[in-house]
Amino acid sequence: MNSQEWKFTSKDIAATPDLFLSGHRACAGCVPATVLRLVMKATRGPTIVTEATGCMEVVSAIYPYTSWATPWLHTAFETAAANASGIEAALKIMKKKGKVKQEHVDVIAFAGDGGTYDIGFQALSGAVERGHDFLFVLYDNEAYMNTGIQRSGGTPHGASTTTTPAGKAVPGKLQYKKPIAEIMVAHDMPYVATASPYYWRDLLTKVRKGLEVEGPAFLHVLAPCPRGWRSDPAKSIEYSKLAVETCVFPLWESVNGQCQLSVPSRLIALAPQKKKPVTDYLRGQGRFRHMFGPQGKKLLEEMQLITDEKWQRVLKKCGMEKQP
Amino acid sequence: MKKLVKQERVAMSGDEAIAYAVKQSDVDVVAAYPITPQTIIVEKFGEYVADGEVQTEFVCTESEHSALAASLSASATGARTFTATASAGLALMHEMLFVTSGCRAPVVMAVANRALSAPLNIHGDHSDSIAQRDSGWIQLYVENAQEAYDSVIQAFRIAEDFGVMLPIMVGLDGFTVSHTLENVETLPDEVTKEFVGTRLLPNVLTHENKKVPFKLDPDNPMTMGPMALPNYYFEFKRQQDEAMKNALAVIQKVNDEYAELTGRKYGDGLVETYRLEDAEIAAVCIGSTAGTMKTVVDELRQEGIKAGLLRLRVFRPLPVEEIRTALENVKAVAVLDKSLSFGGNGGAVFHEVRHVLYDSKAKPYVVDYVYGLGGRDASPRELRGIYQDLLQIVNKGVQNPIQYLGLRE
Question: Which residue in the set B62, B222, B232 is minimally distant from A122, CB to CB?
Answer without folding.
Answer: B62
